[in-house]
Amino acid sequence: MKRNLSSQIRMIALCLAIATSSQLHAQQPRYRLIDMGTFGGPASGLNSGDHGSFSVSVVNNRGTLAGWAETSQADPFPTFCFTNDCYVAHALQWQAGVRTDLGALADGVSSQAIWVSGSGLVAGVSENGAIDPLLPDLPELRAVLWRNGHITDLGTLPEGGYESFANAVNGTGQVIGGALNTVPDSNSLAGPGFLPTQTRAFLWEHGAMQDLGTLGGTDALAQFINEQGQVVGWSYTGSAPNTSCPGVFPVATGSFMWDRSHGMQDLGTLGGTCTLVSGLNNNGTAVGISVNDEQIERGFVWQNGTIQDLGASLGGDFTGSEGINDHGAIAGWAFLAGNASYHAALWQQVGNITDLGVVAGDDCSFASSINAQTQIVGTSIGDGCTFDENSRGFLWESGSLYDLNTLIPPGASLHLLLALAINDRGEIAGSGLDLNGNRHTFLLVPCAVNSASGCQEVIADAAFTAPVHTVFAPGPMGSNRDSLFRHLLSRGLGPQVHGPQLTKKN
User: Cα(123)–Cα(167) distance, rounded to whole angstroms?
Assistant: First the structure.
């Protein structure tokens, strides 16, 4: 009798364990993997936000994704290749299951989509086939806007110049970014020591490009625009040397908020000469980092004219903010005690920090994007916090952190390396490695746990369409590039003084 009772108890316990395990498994999210493939070359990619220095919009709430893919054509400008592989690349759009080559401003040259608005407008850059007269052998680069698949050259500043590049666009078609004028400047903000003239922040609308001014220095660069038309970016504040992040910018650098009512406002500083905005929501709240003269880097939030340290820590000295949603929740990273490793972090409000953790076995992580549901994506990094081919994108929701590679069907074509953006539908855009080690853009679409067909992988190569006919807007011709400029195009200006460093192993 006792033996039978004992067996029954063990059986009940086993059943409960199986039921609990099944319940936990059922609660784990699942995704369909869409591999964006290429246009014939080895790789495709997205605006990476400099791997965690910015939150970027590369997939909107309609599921439209914007990036780029390499063709099989060799780059016609081998001295200053547009991509690391030296192939011509074209802007890519994925919408309603169809992948489109968005083309470029001229045949045989490269383009890149940087940002997609909520309404589906795509901003980016394109070569135009000309060579910059101020920089021998350097192909000119132009800010461009794609509307319904047609490309518009946004030109350069009215006072002249040969370069422009778009960083963001809102739903009404206002585009912001940077453009070079013809005033000599060895400290040009877009490429100190490389570009020969001043960088100026611009706003483009209704066919015209406007210089937004500066905070008192020679240069400025617009980084983000919201649906209200508020613009934030960086500016030199004078001619004084940069004592806080001199390895990033040689001149004291601040951040600004611009709107039509108030013009350009200085966001202020937490001390020091290096304040750099990294995100903006539709309520006009900005986030970023501020570095003091001891080179202590702290995340900040700016709202209603006041800058505040995000507060709290995970034991270390350094914090940073990457993205903010319209509810004011902020995702970023913070160092642990000893300042040797860092974890992705969430601030629901100033002084209230949550450690998001790492994928089991890893040392470091950082957040890249946060949506309205406070789902956060980012990247978890292993041995010694050195980014390599074993790093993996993650999703954090409701207190749990998941390796994205465990949320897709086994045997997938890609290792999901970087998670860069998440929209309000929970769709995740990022970068993965194929079986040959080439970078490919991916999109993850939530699917039902028990839906075999709904979770099957899609490889977009079989569905891509030819470039649409290009349309040119009237205006001057001009633009720019190099490995430094190529880095800039993926938000390479993002300074990481003490923050998450991504150094790829050779």
Answer: 7
pLDDT of residue 256: 98
Burial 161-194 (b: 16+ CB within 10 A, else e): bbbbbbbbbbeebbbbbbbbbeeebebbbbbbeb
The C-alpha atoms of residue 226 and residue 115 are separated, in whole angstroms, by: 12
**Cβ-contact 441, 431 below 8 angstroms:** yes
Cβ distance 132 to 142 under 8 Å? no
Domains in the chain and their CATH numbers? 29-489 (2.130.10.150)
3-state secondary structure of 101: strand
Please indicate, yes or no, whether the overall pTM of this predicted structure exceeds 0.90: no
- 222-275: pLDDT as tens digits: 999 999 999 999 999 999 999 999 989 999 999 999 999 999 999 999 999 999
- Could you tell me how many residues make up the chain? 506
Tokens standing for residue 195: 């570009």
pLDDT of residue 489: 38
Confidence check: pLDDT of 425 > 80: yes
For strands 30-35 and 458-459, give the pairing. Answer: parallel
Contacts of 143 (CB under 8 A, 6+ apart): 123, 124, 125, 153, 154, 155, 164, 165, 166, 175, 177, 179, 202, 204, 479
CB 63 within 8 A of CB 445: yes
Rounded to whole angstroms, what are the CA distances from 348 to 34, 280, 312, 334, 358?
A: 32, 16, 12, 14, 19
Bridge partners of 255?
Answer: 234
Using CA atoms in the order 435, 443, 331, 119, what is the torsion angle rounded to 10 degrees?
A: 150
CA dihedral angle for residue 477, residue 482, residue 483, residue 486, rounded to 10 degrees: 0
> CA 138 to CA 235: how far, in whole Å?
25
CA distance 168 to 110: 19
Query: Cα separation of 335 and 313, whole Å?
Result: 7
In the chain, what is the straight-line distance between the N-terminal and C-terminal CA atoms, in Å? 67
What are the tokens at 491? 């938000």
Helix (H, G, I), strand (E, B) or coil at 293: coil
Residue tagged 């003269």 (tokens): 293
Give the pLDDT confidence of 451-490 residue by residue, as tens digits. 656 788 998 864 445 554 333 332 222 222 333 344 443 3
How would you label 253-266 residue by residue, b for 16+ Cβ within 10 Å and e otherwise? bbbbbbeeeeebeb
